[in-house]
Amino acid sequence: MSRLNSRPARLPRIASSLLLTLGGLLALSACSEGSGEETASAQQTPPALEVVAAKSQPVAAWHTYTTRLESPQSVQLRPRVSGEVEEVLFTEGSQVTAGTPLVRLDTRPFVAEVQRLEAEVARFKAELANARSESGRAASLVKRNLISREEADSRSTNATGLDAQLKGAIAQLERARLDLDYATIRAPIDGRLSNARITRGNTVQAGQSVLTTLVETRQLDAYIDISELTWNQDFAHVTAEDHLPVELQLAGQEDFPFHGELDFIDNSVDIDTGTLRIGATFTADDAALRPGAFARLRLASPEIRDAVLIPERAIGTDLDRQFVLVVGEDNTLAYRGITTGPRFGPLRAVTDGLAAGDRVLAAGPAKAGPGMPITPKLIEMPDDGALKSLAARVSRLQAQQTAQQLNQDNDQNAAELAEAERQAAGGRS
């Protein structure tokens, strides 16, 4: 009886448990459906990627090359005469002008030789004067038949011989005086001295012993070989008289602080390398410029062009073609083949394929591809001073071109004025 009575009491509890379980399952199902919707919504949001707008700016193509500085004049100082070093007159590393005494040899042997030859010249002069007097007297005696013709000719020949001996002695004396002068070794050019290779008391040999090295440092030259193609594209109409600006950077420097000009263009292209040798000159007012120094040269094309600039890192390479990913109006990336020009720091000029204002993926195609929708995040053109430097270069080039044109106009005006004055004077030159 008790068992039968307890069975109905369990039924409500079982029903309640079933209802709770069913409610939990429904709740879990609802949560799962909500989470899926949120995930799908997140997947549908395009990723935010940085883009940059292509910029148009006047540029002058700059080409960079490596070279070493050379001195236009370099002399290994050697004595012209042999002797003992009496005094070293220079300070190592000093700047000297042409004619400055640098080393003095013991002059006593040279002085003695000069004095000996001076005495010999004086003796020959006296003997010659006497011989000429005897020759003149003999000519008078021959006319009076007091001496023979042979005797008169002998006296004349003696005078002629003494004259030749005198000239030889004079030549020897001049050489001895030169040797005396050469005993003081002077700087043949303006320049900076190296270390002394000799000291007082050393015996040096004419033309052999190196005393020191002297190099011209106020002006230094740098030569590079530029490809024929590059020259014809950017410098075809350039001559040495145009004095094209050149910038120089020494090893370890970040900028190009030294300025020179192009002053040499070779007269032919090397048929083996297809290159043309050109040279630039720098005024070495700064002691940092030394012959033999490693340097990088940068020269500008005289033609100023408008170029479209984009970051170098935005450019991808597809086999042998370069491309960028362009952001369309629907914010979808599209493949765009381009042709690139010179590089300016972190920027690259694009000569074909892009227009100013076109938005390109700033980081390039590394993490994106054509057809991919994005949320564009427009950023400023990356710049480490390249745009400012580029504008300064163009400004300098324009100023130089203006100055050259002004000089040409002045020369033309002067020529026209001279011609007008000549015509006014009746055509007389």
Straight-line distance between termini: 156 Å
Individual helix count? 5
The strands making up the biggest β-sheet line up spatially as 2-11-14-13-12-15
Rg, alpha carbons: 46 Å
Task: Determine the mean pLDDT.
Answer: 82
CATH architecture of the largest domain: Beta Barrel
Main sheet attributes: strand count, strand direction, barrel closure:
6 strands, antiparallel, barrel
The domain count comes to 4
* Name of the CATH class of the largest domain: Mainly Beta
Secondary-structure element order, N to C: HEEEEEEHHEEEEEHEEEEEEEEEEH
Q: Which regions have little confidence, pLDDT < 50, spanning 5+ residues?
A: 1-12, 14-32
Describe it for me?
The chain has 429 residues and is of the alpha+beta class. The protein folds into 4 domains: 49-53 and 305-386, conserved putative lor/sdh protein from methanococcus maripaludis s2 fold; 79-105 and 184-215, OB fold (Dihydrolipoamide Acetyltransferase, E2P) (Beta Barrel), CATH 2.40.50.100; 107-182; 218-303, Efflux pump adaptor protein, beta barrel domain (Elongation Factor Tu (Ef-tu), domain 3). Helices cover 37% and strands 32% of the residues. It is built from 5 helices and 21 strands. The chain has helices at residues 2-44, 108-143, 149-182, 228-234, 386-424; strands spanning 48-53, 55-70, 74-77, 83-88, 95-96, 101-105, 184-186, 191-193, 203-204, 212-215, 219-227, 245-250, 258-265, 275-283, 294-311, 316-318, 321-327, 333-344, 347-352, 359-361, 375-378. The strands form 4 sheets. Strands 2-11-14-13-12-15 form a 6-stranded antiparallel barrel. α2 packs antiparallel against α3. The protein is elongated and about 140 Å long. The chain starts with a helix and ends in a 5-residue tail after the last helix. Residues 1-12 and 14-32 have low confidence and may be disordered.
